[in-house]
Each structure stands twice: as structure tokens, then as C-alpha cells.
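Progress against Task 2.4 (sequence-to-structure conversion) is shown through the following example record, which the project officer requested during the mid-term review.
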Amino acid sequence: MLEITVQKRLGDFTLDVEFAAPAGVTAVFGRSGSGKTSLINAVAGLLRPDAGRIALGDTVLFDRAARVNLPVPRRRVGYVFQDARLFPHMSVQRNLRYGGSHDADRVIDMLGLAPLLQRKPGGLSGGERQRVALGRALMCDPQLLLMDEPLAALDAPRKAEILPYIVRLRDELQVPILYVSHDVSEVARLATTVVILDQGRDVASGPVGDVLSSPEAVPLLGVRDAGAVLSAKVAGRLLDDGLTELAFSGGRIIMPGQFGLLGQRVRVRVPAQDVIIAREKPQGMSALNVLSVTITALEQGRGPGVAVGLLAGRDPLLARITRRSANRLGLQVGQQVYAIIKATAIGPEDVGR
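C-alpha cells generated for the chain above:
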């Protein structure tokens, strides 16, 4: 467990956060300028806090009151930057060795680097360079991995190429990973825990499904990015139609494409703006997904929108509708309604393992 309490003044900006990050991916999410990079630089030892304490298990990395501030090399932190920062004159193999030599064969196998070892960074794709950067960070046997928007500079195909490797790191390393991002789809696919920063302060934190599905988080995430994350199982294939059927605690949903193996667990992000609410079960419509749900919260924003918290089985859902629609339907907390989700509202970028 990584425990962080940090205060740092940077000109007119103040970073003031407190949270805990368990093993797995803790996504640090927020708008540009919210303090994400400053936070992980403080954890890495590149930025000294004015006050606070940072501890990784029994190891105290920083404690202002106790006058503890471990040097960067002793923190056993692997750091992956937005740009790979590889040495262009060195082969991939030499770049990896620069990071250390811990369990080199396993790292190379985990990230699929064997075919790249004799090549130089200039001959690699963006996704390949980031895989090498990940490998170099792992060579020092880190007890903590920091990743500062590692996919931000990549196009969609390159992101799709590297995401499975990060998922594998999450599942196999069993160390805390702080993953800075401003991409909600990445967070939904990768994170086990989410911390949302706003103007230097942690305003929401907790399990990914709880935080992203909360109506209170809509202003922080943005109305286009808000949405729930469902844990589901691949239940069937509709091969003639090119669809996949997923089962979760609230029923079944159908989405386009073929994802995962039968019986495999997946997580699915359902955008709030693509969820429609009906008082009565609709008939004769094109939408394939109709779920019986209960309203758990109604949060009115500054504009004309209302965020509606819903419960489908044991899983939270989120819808964003207009205030006019909420009033016309007479929506109330505790009311049973129907959530309608178009199959095409869920894209490949919204599904993770």
C-alpha cells in the first residue's frame, strides 16, 4: 500500500492531497494543471514537498516532521514518461540494461521485446518505444511504478497495441502503479482505483466503478466523459450479426464486435450521455439493451443537465438527461425505471479485461 499526504506550494498553485493506493493501477485523473505530474514527481523524489508523508508499506520515502527524505535511487521507483526518453544511439537491449538487469528474461517476455532487442529507437513505432520504456523501468525491480500519461502521444492503433501490456503489468506485478491520465476510457479500462484532482486537491477517490459512476463526479469528469464501469462476463456470440452478449448483475447487454473468450471477465464503460430513461418498458424500438433499474441519486448541474444515479442489479449506472426531461418524467430517488442503451454506444475503446 502506498500512502500519500503531500502539501506543496508552487507559485500561485498549491498541491494538497491525501490518499492511499493499493497494489494495481491507481489512476490520477484531472484536467491540465490540476497537479497530476507534480504529485508523482513528489512521490519519485524529484519534487520535495513542504509538508506531509509518503510511505510504501513499511518504508518511509518522505516525512517532513521526521526529517526523512530518501534519495531517488533508494526509493526503488520505476518512472515511465509521456515520451519514451530512450537513448537513440543505443540498441533496445542496451537501453533495457541501462535500467538494470533484474529478471531481464521475464521483463522481455512480459512486454514482447525479444524481436526488438537489436534495433535502435529510431526504427521503432511509438507503441514499441513505450514498451521499451516500460521494460527499462521494470529492470530496476521497482516496488512502485509511476506512469505519466504514457499513451498521450500515441494514436489509437498504437494505444490499442500497448494497452494489453499495461493490463498484464497490472495483473502480474502486484505493486502499486500510479497512472496519470486525462483519458477516461484509459482509466476505465486499466484502473482499479481512481483519484480525481481538481486545482491541486483530491476531490474524489475510491474503486473505479464507484468513482466514475457517481453523479457528483460528472462536473469533474466532464459531461461527455462521465459514465459507469460495469464488471461483466462474455456470455455469448451473435455471429451472424457481429455482436457480443455480456452478462452482469443487472442483466445482459449486447454490443458490437467480438471481445474476449466465452466466460472471460471484462469491464465495460457505458457513457452517461448514451443512457436513456423511460418510466415504462419500451416496445418496438431499435435499441437492443433495456435494463430494469432503480434511481439512487439526482444531481442537478449548473446547466440544463441532471445526472441520474441508477442501480442495475448490484452495479451502478449513470445517465445524463435534461432537467426538463427529469421534471416531465417526475423522477424521484427510489423509483424503478428502465435504462435504454444503444448497442453502438459502446465502442472497442470502452472494453477492457
